[in-house]
Design a protein that fits this description.
transmembrane helix, 2% strand, 3 helices, transmembrane, nucleic acid binding, membrane
Length: 172
């Protein structure tokens, strides 16, 4: 039987969806989504988190010694201590208490999350800068460019006039 995911906002009316047992003459069962708990997925190739090794194109990194080779090709002795490829500590890269594990990173401060103050300061600074520089100074290069454009237009116009004169002179 196929599964369908329906996302509804939390409200008293939407809770009634759990009471539905039949839909279009079919018996159905409505369940709430079970959230996954635990560490995020980790790639076996590069030891990075939040992706897997199926489509990973990053350089390989060993789980045991942190050197740039696949873990299955590691020649490290079993009795020697591991070296984390993420934090360079004395643990393996899949150790749950590694400081580079996203679950163990410190939470960002609210001040760091809201960058609106910095954005507003930057916008006012740019606005003031634009107001100061309202007119662009005319340089010799722009004058030469304008004159060359005018001369080009005049030469094209002269060519078209001579062509028109020639065509009217030839036709009876």
């Amino acid at each position: 039987m196929p599964l369908f995911l329906v996302t509804l906002p939390k409200s008293d009316i939407n809770r009634d969806i759990f009471n539905i047992t039949e839909l279009c003459s079919l018996k159905i069962e409505v369940e709430s989504l079970r959230k996954k708990f635990g560490p995020p997925p980790q790639c076996y190739r590069c030891q990075g988190v939040f992706h897997n090794s199926n489509f990973c194109t990053r350089n390989p990194k060993c789980l045991k010694c942190g050197k740039p080779h696949l873990t299955r090709d590691c020649q490290k002795d079993i009795n020697s201590p591991p070296t984390c490829g993420l934090c360079q500590g004395a643990d393996t890269a899949n150790y749950l208490l590694c400081p580079m594990n996203p679950l163990n990173r410190p939470k960002k401060d609210e001040k760091k999350k809201s960058t609106n103050e910095h954005r507003l300061k930057l916008q006012t600074f740019l606005k003031e800068k634009r107001e100061v520089r309202t007119t662009r100074p005319v340089t010799n290069f722009t004058l030469i460019l304008c004159i060359s454009c005018v001369l080009l237009c005049l030469s094209i116009l002269s060519y078209l006039l001579s062509l028109l004169y020639y065509l009217t002179w030839i036709s009876p």
